[in-house]
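[Meeting: bench + compute handoff]

Bench side (C.D.) handed over the final construct sequence. Compute side (W.E.) agreed to return the predicted structure before the next meeting so the bench team could plan truncations. Sequence as handed over:
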Amino acid sequence: MSALWAAAALFGVLAGISLVVGLVARRPLGFLGLVLCALSCLFAAWSAAGLAAVHGEVAPAFVALAFAAAGSLAGYRLAASLVLSAASGNPRARRRAQRPPAERLAVILADAEPHEYDPRLLASRLARIERTGAATLSPGVLPLVFLTERMRYRALRGPHPARYVVDAIADGVRERLSRPGGTLDVAVAYVDSAPDLPSVIAASGSASLAVVELGAAGSLPYLEARLAAERIAPPNRLPRVTEPSIWRDVRLASRLTERILDRVPADERAATGVVLLGPGTPSAWHAQSRSWLEDETYFLTRVAVLLEDAGVPSHAIRSAWVDWQSPNLAEALRHLAAIGSTRIVVCPAAILYPDLVTLLDTGRDVRDARLPEHVQVTVLPPWGDDEVLIDVVASRIAQALGLEPDAR
């Protein structure tokens, strides 16, 4: 009889733990977790039915089910409290083909999202948010955050394209810097996921290393990636971060202005509004991310000046952010519509490659703004493998390693 009471409680705990695994883990482990959760619930109910049969009344069964429910809640909270430490950890790098080390190595460091849902990456990002006090994360809600991320990846109905874009940028840089008999290799590393910067540097025998940062270059996640690499690199092989940031290059500002103006007839620029969209940075990271915030402000301001010179009213050029900072996209759109803009161009200015927000949320944000019917909104894609962007990245690497890029 006592075994049935214990079984009801233990199966309840197992159901709660299995539910968290099912919500967080990738297939097939996630599917197995849900199956185990369902089986645990059935066995808990079987234990309760056994108690009812032994006692000849249903009251013990209801008490046993209450024990099982309490156990499942305890198991859920226990597993949820361990999610970040269990799901994070060192990224698992895929085995790369061995090749002779080049004399010089250029590493493109990016924060692009992976092709498929990766709980390790999400756990690393959430752990940083919690560690820095950027937001308070309730353990009970954490598994649902992972589930939401899984569902968003599933909504893509295919692999996430961001890292294909990074690979295309790396190929373009490699082509521009290649020389007959040259000894330069171009590798890609990612923030918070494999292949990460320390593993790429550790696997390289190159004597000269340069790192160029894409995305929110100089922000806290990039700073932590660089520090992790410096801890494992020999003193004579410390990676050189290319300076200044790519966002300080006037060619990028000019190119973005061209992309925007290509969507606006010259005679309609006076009635046009522009939203320059950035990724956003938590206020808790501002002290460590000062260089990125300065570079982003410089870049957005320069683009705004170029647009104003081309005939777009200065008061109709607004910056907005995807997350953490305000205004958001919907607020910026409402503001431009309120001041009389009849055509609005939304441009991911400081977002180089597509992410889940630009792929899934931007269109919804435009609809949520509930603009008047006469206001026309055009949403541009992120930079992608733009030729000017590749030229800027190649020139930064060439400068750091003492090379000359191809003239294009």
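W.E. noted at the follow-up: The chain has three domains: 2-81, 104-246+388-401, 247-379. C.D. will use this when planning the next construct.
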